[in-house]
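just leaving the lab so this will be short. what follows is a protein written twice so to speak, once as letters and once as structure tokens for the fold. can you read through it and tell me how you think this chain folds. thanks a lot i owe you, the record is right below.

___
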Amino acid sequence: MLRLIEKIIYDDMKKIIKETFPEYKNWKTLEINKITDTKYGDFQTNFAMVNAKHFKKNPREIASQLIQNSEKGEHIKKIDCAGPGFINIYIKDDFLSEYLNKVGIEEYDFKDFQREGKVILDYSSPNIAKRMHIAHLRSTVIGDSIKRIFGYLGYETIADNHLGDWGTQFGMLIVAYRKWLDKQNYEKDPVGELERLYIKFGKEAEKEKSLKEKAREELKKLQHGDKDNLQLWKEFVEVSLEEYKNIYNKLDIEFDTYHGESFFHEIMPDVVEQLKEKELIQKDKGALVHFFDENDNLHPAIIQKKDGAYLYTTSDLACIKYRVENYDKINRMVYVTDIRQETHFKQVFKIAEELGWEEKYDFVAFGLMESKEGIFSSRKGNVIKLKDLINKAVKKAKEIVDEKNPNLKNEMKDKISETVGIGAIKYNDLSQNRISPIHFDWDDMLNFEGNTAPYLQYVYVRVQSLLRMAEKKGIEYKKFSKIFLTNPTERALALLIVQFPNTVKKAAEYYKPNIIADYLFNLAQAFNSFYNSLSILREDEKIMNSRILLSKKVAFIIKEGLNLLGIKVVEKM
């Protein structure tokens, strides 16, 4: 197993500190971080500044004492002091070269993580009988990336798609289906027709008030198991899932379970009973309500309406109850949804804890995606279908492939176009801080230049082209030869390569895939500087081997990193 390089440097610095201050034991204050500007060193620690009060010394004096014992660090070339007391660390070239050789050969050691138990991720969650549109993209790709990141770190993950397959909209749909169904359109595009009916119901109900009452009656019949309504509901779920799974397949996204709200419906009465037993709910104007402690700063949560209907809070509590009782060990539950749901989940998590389900709950919020007209809404009819976005991105990628490489076979062009187009869509979202809102723009979404997936995919292709060129010239490079880092450009690139596992670790800690995206873009830029400023295949055998291997390490990391974002690579573009 390949230890993270920061851990190795940490142990070295710990030896130096122990040699200098034998009684010191508060190792939580020792942190090792990569220096952005390599002319000031490779790594840095603020240990001297953090511990100035403990030692009752000036930070620079502490640093000076540590410098005197720097030879105790096996992998450290030297340390020096900068500014008010930052300790800059320079590592040995031979150590860096040896470490690089192991990248892509040995698995990284992530045993420091508490990985016992399942990480259950709740994301995507489209509403049945509505087409997936651009607003569903964020939860879907962010959730999938987080799943991939935790899987890479060695966690056992369960991806659950908590479908919106129960509720008031089905009463509306049943009424609309029976009144206005276009059978021909339904056969051709079932979910599109169901969505049309949903929008039409909303408009017609404004004019004919009795429609809402009819919808409530049909919903009540459905909830009580009416055979005809139940059959229609099942059909709506089946045709919707078929379309959703086609889109997920295109996006290379898989779920372990599709537990919609209907799955937990029979558990909800048990949740209500448990809340009653623990005296956590009380009647208020006919409804059953949970009132929070004043210090929680949360408004009351309705558990059951006076007509007996359950709400999202009850459904989510039933979901937690099911998970707690059916999974042997849970590491955490992660909910990936938009920022508007924050208060709701704070309520749910607090009630769950009061019920004794004291698991780790993480709410992973993201900013909304908006159009010029405002938030996307099926009811407003201003949504951009996810299927249309994918098709448009693939079409644009195909135009570029046709222009750049017209001699490729059509089958290869189609494969490249799909990989590049879908990669562009995902990266456009994942490369941004998830908390920030996104203003949808076709040009931004389908931009293939700058900090984009196609740019990173092209760097990968550039390395593959280099390897093919070497093979064509009959160059046989040694896969395990020494990597020489005599040039500052090579060394800067090497230091970036070894940062990958720590970058993944940070992305997991903050649930932020954009940390990986930022890292990959910096790596790609560093490689292009290396590739454009230094010759590779014209050098003597020793340097040529070294630079080919360094290039291969870059390609390996780009492929690994893009895969964590759910993006594939291609061999040609």
